[in-house]
Amino acid sequence: TLTLRNQASAPGWPDDLRSAEGSTYARLPASTEFTIADSVQPVLAAGRLYVGSMEGTAYAIRADDGSTIWTSPLPGGTIASAAVAGDVVIVHTVTGHICALRTNDGTMQWSSDAGRAITGAPCVVHDAVLTATHGGRVIARSAATGALRWQSARLPAPIHGGLASDGTNVFVGAENMVV
């Protein structure tokens, strides 16, 4: 009931979301039970949006009508976007957990404690998920099983952001301003 459907996006949708001086959206709640960090972008895959909250809940939302498909608890909140790898959505938490949730029902397929905070988004390369930690390490795990593939040597500074990869190399921007 709190989903806004912009009439400019689809015929028959009821909400006029054009901006106007002094305009408010009457159906917006005064407060919500969750917070989505400004650095989190919803991830779209197979008609579903995946997003995590700062309070520690992952959501799967139908892209066509905004209804919630499932919610799943996370061991800590997230301030990073998720990533989809096959039939799992990967979510990093600020408490240092790497969580793989089944896309169909949100149940935990696997989880791993990286030992340090994670504030960057996962990077999916082929069938692996790469994670950067505040401990200055990059960890590669099987997206399907969570099995450890490799772990980098400790970098000289924490890694707060995300990673990039061309499939062969991994690019890391660390806190010491070195890539």
Account of the protein in words:
This protein is mostly beta strands. Helix content is 0%, strand content 35%. It has no helices and 14 strands. The chain has strands at residues 43-45, 48-52, 57-62, 68-73, 83-85, 88-92, 97-102, 108-113, 123-125, 128-132, 138-142, 148-151, 163-165, 170-172. Strands 1-2-3-4 form a four-stranded antiparallel beta sheet, with no helix packed on it. It has a four-stranded antiparallel beta sheet with strand order 5-6-7-8, with no helix packed on it. Strand 10 (128-132) and strand 11 (138-142) form a beta hairpin. The termini are far apart. The relative contact order is 0.11. The mean pLDDT is 90.
Summarize the structure.
This protein is mainly beta. The chain has strands at residues 43-45, 48-52, 57-62, 68-73, 83-85, 88-92, 97-102, 108-113, 123-125, 128-132, 138-142, 148-151, 163-165, 170-172.
Q: How big is the Rg?
A: 18 Å
Query: Per the principal axes of the C-alpha atoms, what is the gross shape?
Result: globular
Order of helices and strands: EEEEEEEEEEEEEE
- What would you call the structural class? mainly beta
Q: Spans of 5+ residues with little confidence (pLDDT < 50)?
A: none
Could you give the count of β-strands?
Answer: 14
Beta strand %: 35-45%
Distance between the termini: 45 Å
Main sheet makeup: 4 strands, antiparallel
Strand adjacency order, main sheet: 1-2-3-4
Count, helices:
0
Helix percentage: under 10%
Overall pLDDT metric: 90
